[in-house]
Amino acid sequence: MKHDLAKIPEIIGRYPQQESSLIMVLQDIQKEFNYLPCEALEQTAEALHVPLSKVFSVSTFYNAFSLTKKGDVVVRVCIGTACHIRGARQIQEQLETALKIQAGETTRDEKFTLEVVGCVGACAMAPVVLTNEQYHAQCKVHTVKKLVSKR
Amino acid sequence: MVSLTINGKVVRAEEGEYLLAVIRRMGIDVPALCQHEAVEPYGGCRLCMVEITKDSWDGWKKYVTSCLYPVEQDLIVTTHSDKVNDLRRGILDLFLARNPETPLIQKLAADYGLTRTSYEAIPEPNDCILCSICTRVCDAMGFSAISMVNRGHGKEVAPPLHQAPPDCVGCLACAQACPTNYITYEDVGNRRTIWNKQFELLVCDKTGRPTITKEFADYLIKNREIPEDYFRIDDASHREELADKMGRITRWSVTEEAK
Amino acid sequence: MRIESEKQLRDYRKKLIEADKKLVKKIMVCHGPGCLASGAEKISAEFEKQLKKKRIKGVSIESVKKTGCHSFCEKSPLVAIEPAQVLYTRVQIRDVAEIIEKSVKGDDVIERLVYHDPKTDEAIEKYPDIPFYKHQTRIALRNLGKINACDIDDYIRVGGYDAAVKAVLHMTPDEVIDEVKKANLRGRGGGGFPAGRKWESCRKIEADVRYVVCNGDEGDPGAFMDRAIMEGDPHTVLEGMIIAAYAIGAKDGYIYVREEYPLAVINLQKAIEQAEAIGLLGDNIMGTSFSLRIHINRGAGAFVCGESSALMMSVAGHVGEPRAKYIRSVQKGLYDQPTVLNNVETYSNVPMIISNGADWFTSIGAPKNSGTKAFSLVGKVRHTGLIEVPMGTTLRTIIYDIGGGIQKDRQFKAVQTGGPSGGCLAEQHLDLSVDFDTLTAHGSMMGSGGMIVMDERTCMVDVAKYFLSFLVSESCGKCIPCREGLYQLYKLAIAISEGRGKEEDIARMERLSDHVVVGSLCGLGKSGPNPFLSTVANFRDEYLAHIVDHKCSAGVCKELIKFEVITEKCDGCMACISACAVNAITGKKKQPHIINQELCTKCGACVAACNRDAIAVF
Lengths: 151, 259, 618
Known about the structure:
The complex is a heterotrimer. Chain A is built from 6 helices and 4 strands. By secondary structure, chain A is of the alpha+beta class. The longest helix of chain A is centred in the N-terminal third of the chain and has 12 residues, at 22-33. In chain A, 54% of the residues are buried. Chain B has a 5-stranded mixed beta sheet, sandwiched between helices. A 4-stranded antiparallel beta sheet of chain B has the order 8-9-10-11. Chain B starts with a strand and ends with a helix. Chain B is an alpha+beta fold. In chain C, helix 22 (530-538) packs across helix 23 (540-547). The A-B interface holds A 38, 41, 51-57, 60-61, 67 and B 135, 138, 143-151, 158-161, 165-167.
């Protein structure tokens, strides 16, 4: 995927040019590019009149932001309490084995990023895995690797 | 004015003052690692916790950070009760696990009877105690060149993107305020390096000794209306005057002071 | 049209009810969190597609309602046929045509699709007769499953905005506050602080600007009540906030929604636009001088932002670090202005209190704990789902009557409430009344409403380790007891779970916990040791078994367990062999298989793949 950095000013322009817009601007940039490019941090700081150091603090504090490129498919294993006691850790390990990466990493071909997430609020259907926005309910340890088999 | 009792003594304090200031004024030694006179209290190191109660609280006690707790009429404060001492010892034990080789921490821990941590020290420790004084003084200077990044156990002080900070003017406020000398810089001739950023130092017309960085001087001239020739005369009165103007956050240079 | 009087609202509602009567049948397709995860969108689309082609009297595409959580998530996707109150469970696309034919066109019930009692196999057609629903009382969740989530007309039709109109046009702010105070509505976010008192203190402070904020940052893992409300009944949140803003004199309101809940943001945004369009929100609400703008802020993935001062920092665009609250946020909150912060469920209760009065509200629930509480009943319980019960209901009623007991009839071990700040209660606590004070008195807490049931296959050391790991990664890192203390507790818990612990470690952890509880800056740290403290208090033997005997009886802690094939049970189907990712299992067809202990990574895939329960973990 090629990223059009020219889009950054448009995204920043969606919100009032003030500090309280910082998180929302970064969220939209993250959504557009799947990560926060350096240029975006610099332009955001300039436009919102926020020191670059603060933009960096915010982008490293919140889980939603990533400074490195994520894969085309972000696989998120819910490790909320309900999922945990119904075997989310085994699910995570299966996916780690299948993708040959640890949670938090991206495959070399940039197809998959594996993440764990605190809780996605589908606790009754535990354990849950998301591939991008798609939910997969009541995942099974021995079959979950199918979710990442189409490589 | 309000009156309150600290360690059995009745004292008077200004409304809005924080407990720690009053405690220190009485000459009582309460440790506080994230406290710095130039910036607002932070409440991070928790060592300045004290025990408070009131006659009307029916024996109920609270443990509060004195750096952030505003004085109150009839408050009864105990700065070194057994419980408070135990808590400080416990916190210093945790500090020692994070900063096992930091002299300031070792000394403070020794004051509370600890020579080494009872926990496993973290791998690759350094001298940063995460007090955030450096970033807060940098904010107070108006530069905000560095900040706290990441969160939780991975929190650290860093320039943006871990690169030479674009907003840094080499004023040394961070290094001078750092209680553990973790932040280092190097002055060689009329060149200064801090946070991997290089600066040119102005030189005193009379003595030829370096004064402050050109970037810092530009900032002061533009934003604080300090005349240009100010930085070209290196004498004690100038140094003091400038320190005053800067809210005593930063000084000419630490090495100069030391002489 | 703009609504500017009670009569206008009543007349408008009459029209809506008349129009609704023309729909002889309604097909309520649950679009709650569980059903969406099970493909509910495809089901409702299929109903619409098929109904478009068919002509059935009194039924149109309007009959398909995409409702909020119908609550019986275990059986999702759910489809209810109204007004017959028939509930179809685990509905598949292939069932749609039959449902239309038999239950929409006709009045038959498809027995195959209704709930069957797991013990007697008796079919129960109407959902109010199902034990899961029978023991519930719904106030905050009253509209979920009953109306279209994104339709203000549906909300008004069932009585929505009555309370806002009553408060703004016919009550003074003080009267509103008095009513909420009399109702003793306590904060449903977990703290249990009386909302009315909070509103009153905020109103009393002299200021030009005040804010009303809604905490929708449902961070407790294992909880989704607020998600269900924001997605399924967003107008009730707005109505609660309108009433609160009127009472305290706020002109701006903020809803802080967790980033993991994108649909909640969409639905709340739609609801705001709909309410503004008819003058219930925005400038000069109902033609009065009262104005309120509600803004939505998306969280960015930080559990600590559920803490009030951190949340307010985050709304302002900063890092979500809490501050000491020696000066309270009703005095100095968002942008340093007086601020009322309540959570989603608290606001959802407010319209009902204003409409029905404080006496009605206090008649429900337990002493000092009026009303109901919503829970997400999840974990190893047979019937998972979203429930709401009067306060004072016992844990036993919730787990056994509503939840149908433990999955696979295994042994109950513990129930966890209060999220990472709460604790685990054991068998001997099952008859405790579920209310703010009782749970706190027994080492847990109400929390926002996650209720996670654990069975004999759940290891309590692992549960403590799990929560500590969660908190270590979610601590903001500002203060040392939380940042370093929880980290060291976590390290010690790992050592115990791996059989490296020493007996004296338990006492060390208890002492360290005390320092973290007393020393931490905010609630995250102050309550962080609770999961450890409550598990060690109630399940000390399990800790000792790990330390002394190097045994994890639940079969969870990898370093202490072994997987073995039970030769007598194994029929040699080879399912486990293909499931094993490390080729640790060998054997021939129709002959018992063998697990190579050297290679086994204890991932559990073989256990999940085995159809004959022939792999033992011990």
